[in-house]
Design goal:
Blueprint (H helix, E strand, L loop, with lengths): L2 H19 L4 H17 L1 H17 L4 H7 L3 H16 L7 E6 L5 E5 L5 E6 L4 H12 L3 E5 L5 H17 L7 E3 L6 H6 L8 E5 L2 H10 L12 E5 L5 H13 L8 E7 H17 L3 E4 L1 H6 L4 E2 L13 E7 L2 H11 L5 E4 L3 H4 L10
Parallel strand pairs: 3-4, 3-6, 4-5, 7-8, 7-12, 8-11, 9-10, 9-11
Antiparallel strand pairs: 1-2
Helix pairs in contact: 2-5, 2-7, 3-7, 5-6, 6-7, 10-11
């Protein structure tokens, strides 16, 4: 069987499974999700053994530390995945919810009810936790999902899919409701993108080149963002200790993820008092710093940022820093260089910035 036949067969099976999924009630879906969480914890060693095969291969290929971090299924990551499954189980079931009702002039009553999409195709890079995230959300919303992860995570993804399928079958739900494409050849993605007869929407998650490839080749509607050029703006009113903790966490906790900070914007008055100290904190975390002219005046150890750097998604321990006059200039910068992914503002605690005539219950 060639690649086209294999991918088509998987998609046909997903389409058939989607019809069954659409009829599964909330109680059964939640039982599957709780069962998946239990199986994941109980089979942690087996999953990590498969993950280790991927990690060894990645290190042998000389892939970056940030890449290996995204690929690693640590004890903490697996527990987070299991807890995430339980969180999804506790969410309200969207299927069947009536969001609006109205009456036409002729007396006909019309309503809008939420229903499953059908088959969702997920194409993503080497973060195996996405396999669980996507599978659980699609299951909860009554959809079947066809997952195509990065080739570097193939062993991890197949092990995770096998657990999900066992949980589905225990509730007499077709295992094909959650499938991982077992092929690492790029041609598998190209074939998948042609199957608009069986797949209703494609969601790519990963780097800019992956998402461009999907957009340019898909015959199926695509939901995506191109990249994560994320900003943190520190306002004049921010407390230093809080601002430092937030900014450091945003950059160094997991620099290889798409919502990590890539550009730090700092109000000029805050920068005059604190920028050099803040830059030293980043250096202690091995962050390479690039900055605007004013940043470099305040800290001569910061390299000059080029125009291209403001557009850059580093996905590593590198940061662009710009001093701005205030929130308006910060927003203008974000509008020009940002990717509409994740932004944050660090300001004074809320009561300090509330107008005197406003009274909010903060309990």
């Amino acid at each position: 069987m060639d690649i086209k036949q294999q991918i088509t067969e998987l998609a046909v099976n997903a389409r058939e499974a989607s019809r069954a999924m659409a009829k599964v009630d909330s109680e059964r879906k939640n039982r599957v999700l709780y069962s998946m969480a239990k199986m994941l914890r109980e089979n942690k060693a087996r999953v990590q053994a498969e993950n280790e095969k991927d990690l060894v291969a990645a290190k042998n290929q000389g892939l970056s530390a940030a890449f290996v971090d995204r690929l690693t299924l640590s004890d903490k990551t697996i527990e987070s995945m299991a807890a995430g499954l339980e969180d999804v189980a506790r969410l309200p079931d969207p299927v069947g919810e009536v969001t609006r009702m109205w009456k036409r002039p002729n007396g006909l009553q019309v309503g809008k009810m939420r229903i499953p999409l059908g088959v969702i195709g997920m194409i993503y890079e080497s973060r195996p936790n996405v396999t669980i995230d996507a599978g659980s959300l699609c299951l909860k919303s009554g959809n079947a999902v066809l997952l195509r992860g990065g080739k570097e995570a193939i062993n991890s993804n197949l092990a995770l899919a096998a657990l999900m399928q066992r949980a589905l079958e225990a509730e007499n739900i077709p295992a094909a409701a959650v499938q991982v494409i077992p092929l690492t050849d790029r041609a598998a993605v190209m074939e998948m993108l042609k199957l608009n007869e069986y797949i209703d929407v494609i969601i790519p998650r990963g780097g800019e080149s992956l998402i461009k490839t999907v957009y340019e080749n898909s015959k199926i509607p695509v939901i995506a963002h191109y990249k994560g050029v994320c900003h943190v703006y520190i306002d004049e009113s921010a407390e230093y200790d809080m601002a430092e903790k937030i900014a450091l966490n945003a950059k160094v906790q997991r620099p290889g993820v798409c919502n990590a900070m890539e550009t730090l914007l700092v109000h000029g008055k805050f920068a005059d008092k604190h920028l050099k100290k803040l830059m030293e904190s980043f250096r202690k975390e091995s962050v390479t710093l690039k900055g605007c002219g004013q940043t470099r005046t305040l800290d001569g150890g910061v390299a000059e940022a080029s125009e291209q750097d403001w557009y850059e998604e580093y996905l590593g321990l590198m940061l662009s820093v710009k001093v701005v006059k205030g929130i308006d200039e910060a927003l203008d910068h974000i509008a020009k260089y940002g990717s509409k992914h994740t932004e944050a503002i660090v300001t004074a605690p809320l009561p300090a910035i509330m107008p005197p005539d406003m009274h909010w219950d903060l309990t």
